[in-house]
Each structure stands twice: as C-alpha cells, then as structure tokens.
Specification:
The protein is 50% helix and 21% strand. With 179 residues, the protein is α+β, with helices and mostly antiparallel strands.
C-alpha cells in the first residue's frame, strides 16, 4: 500500500496550492499523506490516526465519514477558521480536501452571523449581491420561489437599513443592465 500512496500523492502534490489542504488517510483514518496546506492547519500528523479537524466535524455532525463516495460541507468551523471541506472515499483511501475562507470572507460571514442570519440566508445574500435574479437563485439552490421570498424577507428584517438599500440598488442596476 505504501507504494500506491507514494505514487498517488507525488502525482497529486505537483498541482496543489499551499492554501488548499489535502490529507490522505487509510480507511482506519491513519494519515498517510499531507500537503503543506494541510500541515499548516493540522500540523504534521503523518502516521497517526486523525481525530481532529475534519474528522472531529464528521463525528459532531453524526455523519459517516467512511461511506463510499463524496461528501461536501460548506462553512465548517475547524482549526480556528472556516473551511469548505470535501471528503472522498474511493474504497482504498479517505481523501480530505479543504479550502480556507479568506480572512475577509470569514469576517464578513461573522458579521452576518452577528445580525442573526443563518448560513443559508448568508448564501442567498451573497447570490443577491452578485446580481443574480430570484429565478437564478432558486435554480442554483434548488428551492422554490416562495421559499426564496421567505428567506429574503427574513434577511431584510435582520440586516441594517443601509445594507437593505444597497442590496436593492444593486439588484435594480443589474436588472436594468439586462433590459
């Protein structure tokens, strides 16, 4: 198994940014490979069972981390930061790929949480800020129009008036550009 891991990781590591964390574990969760991004956040834990970081999140969420296939988690709190995490179980290895949110994005996320917005409402607000129409948002998030309108009403009740006005102006200018 060692040569298979070495071959896999040497090929993969050539294309990885240090910002992107990649960790390859055996099915019993012993760390076999980490890139520099993973070591930056998790420390050098090669050869030891993984019990923190993404594995801690999987336990807390009562989700099986060892099911075959792929699982994606957005806005995961781990290692004193916020990450998007992808776990791939190909039946031989558990490969965790995680991407840290930028400091600005994390701070903005915290700000919106302080306003009482849920992660889903923050996701919708971000899509609104990008100028997506309601139809585009419902399609992208696989939700109905009434559900989106409920979220938008809740968002507008929670955020300050200046931000509501800015969001309305941004969406109106986007609409006028499309016409």
């Amino acid at each position: 198994m060692e040569s298979l891991v070495e071959q896999y990781t040497s090929d993969v590591s050539l294309f990885l940014s240090d910002k992107l964390g990649v960790c390859v574990k055996s099915l019993d969760k012993v760390v076999l490979f980490q890139n520099q991004g993973s070591k930056k956040y998790c420390g050098d834990v090669i050869g030891t069972p993984c019990t923190t970081g993404c594995m801690e999140f999987y336990r807390e969420s009562d989700m099986e981390a060892v099911n075959l296939g792929t699982q994606f988690y957005a806005n995961v709190k781990m290692h004193a930061g916020t990450f998007d995490v992808l776990l791939v179980n190909d039946g031989t290895f558990l490969t965790t790929i995680f991407y840290p949110h930028s400091e600005n994005k994390t701070e903005l996320f915290k700000l919106f949480l302080n306003y009482g917005l849920t992660p889903r409402e923050i996701e919708i607000l971000a899509l609104m800020a990008k100028g997506l129409s309601n139809k585009e948002i419902t399609s992208k998030l696989f939700i109905s129009s009434p559900t989106l309108k409920t979220h938008i009403n809740k968002i507008y009740k929670k955020i300050p008036l200046k931000l509501r006005a800015y969001m309305g102006d941004k969406r109106r200018s986007q609409l006028s550009e499309e016409l």
